[in-house]
Amino acid sequence: MINVFFLTTTWAKVEDKKIIIEHAEKLSFVSKDKKKVINLKGKVKLLNEQTTLYAQYVQFIPKSKLLIAQKEVLLEDKNQKVWGDRLILNVDTNQGQIKNIKSYQEPTFYKGNIAYIKSRNHYGIKEASLTTCNLKCNHYSMKAKSIDLKIKDRFLAKNVFLKIGNTPLFYLPCYRGSLKDKHTHLSVKPGCSKSDGWTTKVKYHYCLNKNNSGLMLLDYYELRGFGRGFNHEYTVEGQSKGRLNFYYIKEDRDPNAKIRRRWSVSNHYYQTFPNNLTLTNNINYVSDKSFSKYYGESIYGLTNEIRSNISLTKRVPAYYTLGATYDRYDVLDKNKDKIVKKEELLPSINFNTTRLELKKSEWFYTIFTQFGRKYKNKYYYNFLDGNIDLLKNYHFPRYKIGRWISFSPSFSLDGDWKDKESIQKNESYYDAHYHTNFVVPIKLYRKKIRINPQYSYKRSFKDSKIKKNKLKVEYIHLLKRNMDINSAFGYNCLKKEYDNLTTQLTIKREDFKLGKNLKFKTANFFLNNNYNIEKQEIKSIDTSLNASVEKNKKNYCFYLGSSYVPNTMSQLRGKFSTDFIKFLDLSFCTWYDLKKQEFQQGEIILKRDLHCFESQLNIQRSKVYGSSPVEWETNVSYRLNLKSFKDTKLSISQDGNVGKFGLGDVFEY
Question: Which residues is 98 bridged to in the sheet?
Fold first, then answer.
């Protein structure tokens, strides 16, 4: 074996690019047709910048700058690994071809009969296929006439057949995928319903550049017409960003339609300026009250309430925030087919400080004030409100009584000022208060028990009335074996009544055995009791039990929960899941009304791991209230998706009289 480490003049420079022979078992120079040829044989390893070439046989022709590699060819750099039987490459232009190419870029495998190298990390593959399944016989693959591949950027496949095993299932004339993210670029969702007839909803995710991307929407409704729109996200110079959504449909197929042109538009915008100045804009509008009911799935969320605002804010993080805001709140009227204004805040000014120290006196203060003009309940009125909070905390040393008892009291004092104009009386009021909070945490029995008595008091300086006078006690007991009890109640001295007594019991256990082959991984029990001391009656009880059991290397999970409110509600909820069937996870959920002694809802969920696929079947049966007599409804849905690309889903669902199915559905964006 010969290890060669050298550079020749012709070999070393190709437009300032160096090629280094790091290893070869045999090297020879020949002259053929007045051309010098360098031959390398046996475990050849060449380095060119960040690319490494492995092969059993390599020829290099310096004059034409042509490199020919054969047998066990591998091109490797930080972005890719490309295998082939024969490589022809012009090292000057980085162009050439590879025969029987195979490539892997997480999580996708590519292969083809021949690939043309267009530039570094850019390949045109003929008679190609791609898959994320790493088995020798792939569970699925996408066969294409050609694939234009840019490593770590995107791929464009033409004349594509989706195959499950060797069976063709779906055809697309063209399919584009991004390798920068795992978004589904194309979503097709056919369906059928009584109100719309046959429907097809298409979403296409586009990316113009790193600052502009979004969705193109095109919907077909047999009984309504064509809907179109877009959801576009943009960034400008790294200092601003926004989202613009628009959807429009002309209902020209329904002769009974009252509204022909229906639309929705919304804009969200955020801009930063020098000196900590920011601008926020949020504007929404829809054409009519029922738009969201029919087309909410195609726009960016449902719109039953509309809030629009524009705000300009100056913020100095260590001191204060100064802002000007316009805010409007609209709702969709149920009786009239239009949007009505409920509230409006005309340009208002607000000022708010952070917590600041008052001349190093250990007193702290905050100031907030706001003034402007407001519309509410069909009236406009001017307002001015604000407050000043003064705060000082007193912490006392920790005191010990005996071996097991200790307490550490704390005391705080704060005050506020308010000014607000009344809507009815059209007059202002000013008031000030002082507050006290006195807390004495007591720890008993080596920190196993903790009692927190707390006293709160608030009084008005204007009319000397007591606003708050309350005593509260919290009891926490840390029992053995991960058992906790937490109980609390209070007494309102002003109203002369007790608060409800709340008690929580929590028990947690992990990894304990009950038999030779039976092991509890986890077991959690929770009890919450709400008791009215004044009326001496239970207000509500909530309990839940979670357990995970392993028996003979099979897992079983149980959940049992109940809610009880006297004379109102008594419910029992249960869930059971297991993997005792090989490759199949089974879950069963139920909801039982103890008061009516009848089932309200049941659901069976079957999940199957198919190596590179995930499949899930949901069968749900529930009561439909509001109908007379009460009817049962069954919903069935099936979903199949790739593990590596969870946004690429094949889903089929049946919901009453409505059926839907699609590829790439549902689209998360």
Answer: 87, 115
Q: How far apart are CA 286 and CA 305, in angstroms?
A: 10
- Tokens 């699609």: give the residue: 662
Bond into 666 cis (ω within 30): yes
Under DSSP, the state recorded for 257 is -
pLDDT of 614 above 70: yes
**Residue 264 bridge partners (DSSP):** 247, 286
Label residue 378 exposed, middle or buried (CB < 10 Å: 0-12, 13-18, 19+): exposed
Average pLDDT over residues 137-166: 82
Per-residue pLDDT tens digits for 460-510: 777 778 888 889 898 888 877 778 899 998 999 988 899 999 999 998 888
CB atoms within 10 A of CB 334: 7
Q: Structure tokens of 207? A: 């990316």
* Element holding 8 (H helix, E strand): none
What one-character-per-residue DSSP string does 222-253 give?
TTTEEEEEEEEEEEETTTEEEEEEEEEEE--S
SS3 state of residue 345 = strand
Residue 625, pLDDT score: 60
CA separation for the pair 115, 103 (Å, rounded)? 11
Contacts of residue 13, defined as CB under 8 A and 6 or more positions apart, other chains included, come to none
Give the angle 394-440-455 at the CA atoms, nearest 5°: 85
Q: What is the pTM of this model?
A: 0.55
DSSP 53-71: EEEEEEEEETTTTEEEEEE
Q: What are 573-580's contacts with CB under 8 Å, separation 24+?
A: 577/605, 578/554, 579/554, 579/555, 580/554, 580/556
* 630, HSE (Cβ side, Cα atoms, 13 Å): 7
- The C-alpha atoms of residue 230 and residue 189 are separated, in whole angstroms, by 17
Residue 422: pLDDT over 50? no
What pLDDT is stored for residue 295 in this prediction?
64
Q: In DSSP terms, which residues pair with 282 in a beta bridge?
A: 268, 309
What would the pLDDT profile of 156-205 be if each residue is shown by its tens digit?
A: 888 888 787 788 877 778 777 666 655 556 677 777 777 778 888 888 87
Q: What is the pLDDT of residue 9?
A: 33
pLDDT of 17: 56
Among 647, 660, 566, smallest CA distance to 184 is for: 647
- How many C-beta atoms surround the C-beta of residue 492 within 10 A? 15
